Amino acid sequence: MRLPMCVLALAAFTLAPAQEEEKEKDIDNPHHGKQEMVEAGRKLYLNSCSACHGPTGEGGRGPGLIKSGMIRGASNRRLFTTIKDGVRGSDMPPSTLDDGKIWQIVTFVKYLNAPAYETSAAGNADAGERLFFGKAGCVECHSIRGRGGVLGPDLSGAGLTRTYAHLRESLLNPDERPTDGYQGVSIQLKSGRRVEGVARNQTNYSLQVLDAKGGLHLLSSLDIEQVSFRKGSLMPGDYKTRLSKSEIDDLLAFLSRQVIRVPEKEK
Ligand code: HEC
Ligand code: HEC
Q1: Which of 100, 105, 129, 130 has the lowest tally of Cβ within 10 angstroms?
Q2: Cα–Cα distance between 177 and 52 in angstroms, integer?
Q3: What are the start and end residues of each CATH 1.10.760.10 domain in the chain?
Q4: Which residue's alpha carbon is at the smallest distance from atom 37 of ligand 1?
């Protein structure tokens, strides 16, 4: 169990200089990383901004505010003034909200783009770890640090490579956030055998299927009777009712701490 701490320390170390540099000339966001301010900002955003930037920041009349390099790199000052003053010569209007509320919106917009590791998740990561490897059953499909199943993506680096919002959405509404390369499939072979798992590689002549035990099946279209692709995600869609609010927070806190870089799985 020493390895994760090591990697955490390293990640913190390599992130530090850039942040410190920005702090010197930038102004502080008084609400930085506070979860309740993220929620307050979300409400304001839905009222004042979502008509143009989309309810989840996906964009529309205005540019997308998620996966945005501009926002990830922007200083607090730049975001604050963009939102307060608007963008002259464009549709983006100045805001009539007071400064405190604008900072709440800045906090929310930053949160949409920061790696989960940098947001201070409310839950208890240790409790989340017990849920992940125990009662919640995540480990049946997801691996962390080499331990767990293969039907879902490896989550060892989820805290660095995913935003908190993405992790939360993936957990609560898996059907709305499908990840490429993990479509569930069930195949009836002419021999009578059935193979189930996720479809990896498909051509006109063959299909590669990874099963729950990690076995890779290369199936020729000549041997296949019928292929049924699953419409929704393989991931259970009922966690938002099956888990309590605090269990959800705990799981997200645990996932946010996962910072080991893993190479993208070969497909
Ligand atoms: C009437 C539509 C509209 C509304 C309402 C609006 N925006 Fe915009 N926003 C835009 C447009 C259009 C741009 C692109 C401006 C340009 O040409 O650079 C923009 C740009 C931005 C940018 C810069 C993004 C980038 O990648 O350069 C941010 C940040 C932003 N808006 C945040 C907000 C926030 C937060 C709110 C709510 C307080 C808001 N906007 C309300 C239309 C809107
Ligand atoms: C039956 C298998 C299964 C179980 C159980 C399962 N997942 Fe998943 N999960 C998947 C698959 C498959 C995907 C990727 C494809 C998709 O999004 O449909 C996924 C996607 C995810 C993602 C998004 C990954 C990414 O690449 O961004 C997260 C986060 C996640 N799951 C967390 C969890 C957590 C936490 C649990 C336990 C509470 C859990 N999953 C239980 C199969 C599962």
Answers
A1: 100
A2: 22
A3: 2-114, 125-178+240-256
A4: 49
CA distances to 92, 116, 178, 189, 207 from 196, rounded to whole Å, are 50, 32, 18, 11, 12
Domain made up of 125-178+240-256: CATH architecture: Orthogonal Bundle (1.10)
Q: Is the CB of 68 under 6 A from ligand 1?
A: yes
Secondary-structure class of domain 184-229 per CATH? mainly beta
Q: Which helix (H) or strand (E) element contains residue 38?
A: helix 35-48
Give the closest residue to 265 by CA, choosing from 179, 189, 196.
179
CA distances from 87 to 78, 81, 104 (A): 11, 9, 19
Q: Which atom of ligand 2 is nearest to the CA of 175?
A: 18
Is 59 close to ligand 1, i.e. is its CB under 6 Å away? no
Q: Are 93 and 86 in contact (CB under 8 A)?
A: yes
